Amino acid sequence: MSTLSDFNHQLLQFLSSSPTPFHAVSSMTELLINAGFIPLKENESWSLKDFQGYFITRNDSSIIAFTTGSQEYSKHGWRLVGAHTDSPCLKVKPNADLYQQNYWQLGVEVYGGALLNPWYDRDLSLAGRVTFLNSQKQVCSALINFEEPIAVIPSLAIHLDRNANKERSINPQTDIPPILSLIPEDNTNKPTLSKLLISHLNGAGYQDIKEILDYELSFYDSQTPALVGLNKEFIASARLDNLLSCFIGLHALLNSEYQKNEVPCLLVCNDHEEVGSQSHCGAQGPFLQQTLTRVMGCPITAAQVMANSLMISVDNAHGIHPNYADRHDANHGPILNKGPVIKQNCNQRYATNSETAAIYKWLSQQQQVPFQSFVVRTDMACGSTIGPITAGELGVRTLDIGVPTFAMHSPRELAGNQDGYILNNVLQAFFKTTELPS
After folding, report:
1. Which segments of the protein form a coiled coil according to its record (predicted)?
2. Mind listing the domains of the chain with CATH numbers?
3. If you write DSSP's letter for every residue of 246-288 in order, what string do you get?
4. Each residue of 365-417: pLDDT tens digit?
5. DSSP letter string, 84-131
6. Are 197 and 96 contacting, i.e. CB atoms less than 8 angstroms apart?
7. Does the predicted TM-score (pTM) go above 0.90?
């Protein structure tokens, strides 16, 4: 088992290398291959072996990794863990080039429920997937990541908006297009996004680009993830929601001794959770169910397998903020580094019930680690996760759990340095548990 220090070091590396869902899946793919997992393709037949690990991707932004165990699926059921790869961000529009007041900017859309104010005055970079035509008229795609800061959204000076600290609002159409550069004074050879992408791809070894056909690009804060605080007890990073959960689930799966573990285990990390999950690679799409059906085969009774299975949906929880403690129910305010949070909601915004909560508490007690509970204030709306969606799609018992965080949906979020490691250890035990309480 890795130490807390090793776990957090690997986590920071993963966060840094994963500025978009495409890069997150690429990072996870590399880790899986290094651990001996075998890639599968959806358009090919599968021949699976006992005690082997496999993985499959869809849209380059969602991934399922699983271990077969003894392939006695109806006997043991599945140990399932789910998370999502996407985060709120600023996505570049299709016709993005803007030329205003001698500045080159890019038009953006707001993806998901982003906190917009923190995007101002940050060193922004750009990453995503680009699809292009080569000289042989072949359609190709490549991941792109500028890494260096290439853009900024400057705040309006307080001298020009004296009420900024009281009532400044943000118009997402007009107020947040990032600035990339000045336009040449002779107004010739204007910079364009297409030229920028071709130049960068050329530098990355793609020399045969005839035309940029399309792209899915996101701006991101280029400040690197870090341990912060007087005693380095916090993790500060972009995309903790929900790449932190993706890494925890993957790390637990890779360290579950799958080569001798009879129980079949699975990790699914879906894209598009932040915008409703309804896509061919989202949790409300058929990706997980189709994969499970292919793995188990037709003779297996799905209802019997699911009755012996458990899904743990992992997505960050709201830690109680010391400056805004009144936004929490007084008895349900999770504290950072006091353990993962069992998330409950009677209106099924979370899928946890008393039995699945009890199973997690039982697992935690076996590991002698703490846990906490979260219920949103009764007079406030509650967010949701892939948990209820997956429970409804598969008919599987489901638990919603998460690491407590601050500043959720900000370009820089904050979590404790111990909670992810604690949850990792519980999930490792979960993956190796042959019999769950019924």
Report:
1. none
2. 4-87+238-432 (3.40.630.10), 89-221 (2.30.250.10)
3. HHHHHHHHHTS-TTT--S-EEEEEES-GGGTS-STTSTTSSHH
4. 999 999 999 999 999 988 899 999 999 999 999 999 999 999 999 999 999 99
5. E----EEEEEEEEEEEETTEEEEEEEEESS---GGGTT--EEEEEEEE
6. no
7. yes
